[in-house]
Structure formats: C-alpha cells, structure tokens
What does this fold into?
Amino acid sequence: MKSVVFSEQDISRAVTRIAHEILEKNKGAKNLSLVGIRTRGVTLATRIKKSINDINGLDIDLGVLDITFYRDDLAIGKHNPVIEKTSIPFSLESKNVILIDDVIFTGRTIRAAIDALIDFGRPASIQLGVLIDRGHRELPIRPDYVGKNIPTSKTTRVQVLMKENDGKDEVCVINDLTIDNT
It folds into this structure.
C-alpha cells in the first residue's frame, strides 16, 4: 500500500522554510556552501540554493557528493555500486557546509557523507538538512534542518520523487511487508 504524505506544494514550502532556517542559523550566507548527496540530495540542494539566492541575493557554492566508496555496506554485498561523479569545485576550509539529503533513516549514509566530505578539506562546521526524517537511527546523527518528520516502521519505505529526476514532486510511504531487516 502506498500513501502520499507530502505534495508538490508541501515540498516547495519545506524548501523555502529550510532556506530561511539556514540563513537564520548562519546569520546570512557568508562562508556558506551546500553539498548535495547523490541523487535527490543534489536536486534538493539545488532548490535550496535557488531559494537562498531569491531570499538573500547571494549565489552560494554548491557541491555534489557521491558516497559510494564510503558506504559501510559495500563489503557485505548489500549494495551494487554505481559510481558517479563528485564535484566540489571550491575550498571547504573555514566554510559552513550544509550537507543535504532527501531522507535520513539509520544515519549511515550521512556518516559516509561526512567521511567523504572531510577528504576534501576541513570546514568550520558541517550541518545537515533533509527533506524527510523517518527515524530509526543506528548512529547518533541528527539533522539541523528537516522538511517533515514522518514516523515509520522498519517495514515501510519512504519514496521521494522530484520533478528533475522523476517527473513529479511527492513523498510517499510504501508499506512493504517483504522487506527483510535482518
């Protein structure tokens, strides 16, 4: 069973709100950079960057991060790696970096992203923004900016669709009793 929990309008409002929260917490856009985690984290980061530009009139840096080689499930064969390009064409030194992803679940993807990011330099801070927080952390990682908290069970999936990648904007919760979490 699939249910839509976040519409196109909800996503748009969340992006605008996250952009405002980022600017407020960082006292503007000075020394601010966004880094999106492939794939939909990049799409979300691009939208947040545009919103920050619309609000503040500043064009901030945007990077793209592929975390494939940093995943902790690569060695156990649960992941079929597709390596894509990482592009961080600016220095991270002394920057406040906002790491952006679509969904946070166990925290393992974010841990891998932080490891990958540190290989590019030492930012002043790393903050985390996500569209959806579904709970069930296995690591002590908490987002600074959240579009929506969606309580889920471990037997459900959260599917984020974005126009740029999927032709439409929506977030669905899919009850899938066939998921094996062993």
In short: The helical segments are 8-25, 40-56, 108-118, 163-166. Residues 2-175 form a domain with the Rossmann fold fold (CATH 3.40.50.2020). Strands lie at 2-6, 32-37, 61-65, 96-104, 125-133, 145-149, 156-161, 170-175.
